[in-house]
């Protein structure tokens, strides 16, 4: 909960007061985290929010149903919604033309009509929403946010403080990030969705800046900007407050070193802003100092949400020696620890796709090899420029990481790390198109079905010229050319083979996976009619 002044926040569940918390302060902004205990498993219960004695939620005269708390039902089926890349437009006519229909708003309308699977206060399913990257765009702003920046920076004297020479159309300071989140999540339908559906989140590049941590060269170029330190501390600090704290269970939050310090500031009545800044800069400089990845068991489904941005290792040597990896050494160790058999279904949520269209994967692998010197020193500079120009920075561009994860997935799928799950699903976004890719081992058989599911964007459709380029890059001629290039560059052959089940879809979508026992069905919803009140329709459904 964010408030406009320090206060006590109370939560009343099903008419009974059950939780209260005092706000803490970060750079003049006030927040509260209320931990509600003692609820029965499988409950769906309406709740209200009070600031002191004033009820502030639900809002009066809201056309949406009451917000509810949902506790896990251990034996119930599970349903995961997922997506990435959300630009707030409110489904205005101009926004619909450029960005397409807002699938978070549309999903709120759909779930409100469905009743969220509740019958007499009991859950008949476990429901969760995974927002896997680009929840906000700090570097591609809509006019309301640009107007806020103009007003906030009005009269500021150059050189007054860190970040004062910042780009006019990008957020830099913490208060600017706070406004960016407010504008992203204050739409009434989006706000109701986040107040009702358990939600897990992780950052991608635009939460900080486009192509964040693409390479060591990219990072050096950003370090040259005097405002970059303020941007990093503000972006990571705001992410911890607005997104990451909600990923943590009460037990995990109690063990979080930053949370303990923030609570101490709260108890002393002081502002925790400087502490948050120091923490964020250390997390940027030393990724091993904090773990952003998180695990959740939802009935028979294990969900592993991986940090593929902040924890990257950006060495410039041999691409296969581990000095360059998309997770970093600690991130790989964490994923290996939790990537085991036992659950009925295993989900790895990575903001960037693990299995790209094969032609794009080959291009990225070739580019990494050339950047590493496979074609001589003279080719490294042009290859680095190509990497940044074409955003060649997914798993295919980190071959050490790709092979390590592929080997682990196959070991799980063969039962080498405990009882094999029915499915190993790789959920991703980022690329602004949606697809399904089925994978198999090049050698031997697997018990588990391995599938990449991509749903993107929630509200940021590609312009037509980019769609044509993306569709062309996934074509067979490019696939053949990519295979030849990777062999000439000495890239190791993947232990997995895969192909797209159909052509990518370029409209806005939200993905959904429904689990029931050892069965799983993937669905993609879209709004072909558009409009601010349109209900989403299933575009495709397939057993996975």
UniProtKB/TrEMBL annotation:
InterPro entries: DUF7800 (IPR056702), Metallo-depent_PP-like (IPR029052), PhoD-like_MPP (IPR018946), PhoD-like_sf (IPR038607)
Organism classification: Bacteria, Bacillati, Actinomycetota, Actinomycetes, Streptosporangiales
Pfam families xrefs: DUF7800, PhoD
Protein's organism: Nocardiopsis metallicus
Span of the signal peptide: none
Domain DUF7800: 1-68
Domain PhoD-like phosphatase metallophosphatase as annotated: residue spans: 129-458
Transmembrane segments: none
Protein name as catalogued: PhoD-like phosphatase metallophosphatase domain-containing protein
């Amino acid at each position: 909960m964010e408030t406009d002044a320090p206060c006590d926040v109370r939560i009343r569940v099903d008419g009974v007061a059950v939780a209260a918390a005092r706000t803490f302060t970060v750079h003049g902004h006030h927040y509260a985290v209320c931990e509600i205990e003692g609820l029965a498993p499988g409950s769906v219960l309406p709740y209200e929010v009070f600031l002191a004695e004033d009820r502030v939620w639900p809002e009066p005269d809201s056309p949406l149903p009451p917000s509810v708390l949902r506790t896990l039902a251990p034996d119930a089926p599970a349903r995961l919604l997922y997506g990435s890349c959300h630009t707030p437009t409110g489904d205005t006519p101009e926004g619909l033309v450029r960005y397409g229909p807002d699938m978070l708003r549309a999903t709120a309308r759909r779930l409100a009509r469905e009743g969220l699977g509740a019958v007499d206060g009991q859950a008949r399913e476990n429901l969760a929403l995974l927002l896997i990257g680009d929840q906000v765009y700090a570097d591609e702003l809509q006019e309301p946010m640009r107007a806020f920046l103009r007003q906030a920076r009005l009269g500021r004297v150059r050189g007054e403080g860190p970040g004062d020479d910042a780009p006019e159309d990008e957020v830099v300071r913490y208060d600017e990030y706070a406004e960016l989140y407010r504008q992203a999540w204050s739409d009434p339908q989006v706000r109701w969705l986040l107040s009702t559906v358990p939600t897990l989140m992780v950052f991608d590049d635009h939460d900080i800046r486009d192509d964040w941590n693409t390479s060591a060269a990219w990072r050096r170029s950003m370090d040259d900007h005097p405002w970059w330190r303020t941007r990093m501390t503000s972006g990571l600090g705001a992410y911890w407050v607005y997104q990451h704290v909600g990923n943590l269970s009460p037990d995990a939050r109690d063990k979080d070193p930053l949370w303990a310090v923030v609570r101490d500031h709260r108890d002393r009545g002081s502002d925790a802003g400087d502490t948050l800044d120091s923490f964020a800069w250390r997390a940027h400089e030393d990724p091993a100092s904090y773990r952003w990845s998180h695990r959740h068991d939802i009935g028979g489904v294990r969900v592993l949400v991986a940090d593929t941005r902040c924890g990257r290792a950006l060495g410039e040597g041999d691409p296969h020696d581990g000095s360059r990896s998309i997770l970093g050494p600690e991130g790989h160790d964490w994923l290996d620890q939790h990537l085991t058999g036992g659950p009925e279904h295993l989900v790895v949520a990575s903001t960037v796709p693990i299995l790209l269209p094969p032609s794009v994967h080959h291009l990225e692998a070739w580019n990494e090899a050339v950047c590493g010197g496979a074609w001589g020193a003279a080719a490294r500079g042009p290859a680095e420029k190509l990497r940044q120009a074409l955003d060649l920075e997914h798993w295919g561009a980190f071959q050490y990481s790709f092979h390590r994860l592929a080997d682990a997935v196959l070991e799980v799928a063969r039962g080498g790390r405990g009882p094999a799950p029915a499915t190993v699903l790789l959920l991703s976004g980022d690329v602004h198109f949606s697809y399904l890719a089925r994978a198999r081992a090049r050698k031997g058989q697997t018990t588990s079905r391995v599938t990449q599911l991509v749903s993107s964007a929630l509200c940021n459709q590609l312009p037509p010229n980019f769609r044509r380029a993306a569709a062309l890059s996934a074509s067979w001629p490019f696939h053949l050319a990519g295979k030849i290039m990777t062999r000439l560059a000495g890239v190791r052959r993947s232990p997995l083979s895969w192909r797209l089940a159909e052509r990518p879809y370029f409209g806005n979508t939200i993905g959904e996976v429904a689990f029931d026992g050892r069965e799983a069905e993937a669905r993609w919803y879209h709004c072909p009619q558009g409009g601010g009140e349109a209900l989403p329709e299933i575009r495709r459904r397939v057993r996975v």
